[in-house]
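The pair is quoted verbatim below.
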Amino acid sequence: MYKEQLKYLLEQLQQGKTDVDTVLAKIIDLPYQDLGFAKIDNQRELRRGFPEVIYCAGKTRDQVAGIFERMAEGSDNILATRATEEMYRAVVQRVPDAQFHPMPGIITLWRRKCKGIGNIAVVCAGTSDLPVAEEAAITAQIMGSHVERLYDAGVAGLHRLLLNRKILDNAKVLVVVAGMEGALPSVVGGLVDKPVVAVPTSVGYGASFNGLAALLAMLNSCVAGITVVNIDNGFGAGYAAALINRLGEIEQ
């Protein structure tokens, strides 16, 4: 919406239907749209290269649908995380080309697709960690990155990782997702010369303390170059990896 409004003002200026001072005064009022229950940051894409992401948990389905619909008026790609199927049903009534990804609980609008730049490897320890891994992978993809997945490659069967070294070596940045004792990012970090974004998950038995054990293990890794995000924060990891991956790349 912000880009469309700005384009309109510039066209008005070029056609001599307004003046510079009037345009500047109106631009001051464009930074966000106030929906009453939410203020949409219209300038986020210009500042960061991707529109504001909708965090759905804690919102009603109508609030999610209202924000999604308004953002769809001016953005080609939209990402909504931690969504339910009920929220998606409300969204798709207003934005028919929205898509739902049930495993990570993500709603996307994916009107502008590309082959993907660079290469991000999302490595997942176990099948139980897949929702978090897919949240990271889809986030990176919708932000324009090429993503390769290596799933169920935890340290309990280390050969599953080592026999897929090509995926690790080809990556520009790696997102490594693990619960339980959280050892996988340290193993991967010791094998590659690329940035590793580690994601602890809440998967594990009682002494894992809902992911706290994995979080502390990753924070205390002896391997240099590992960055750790919060427990179950696949979105944050995918976003960070996409920003790193974007550096120096030209979209194909």
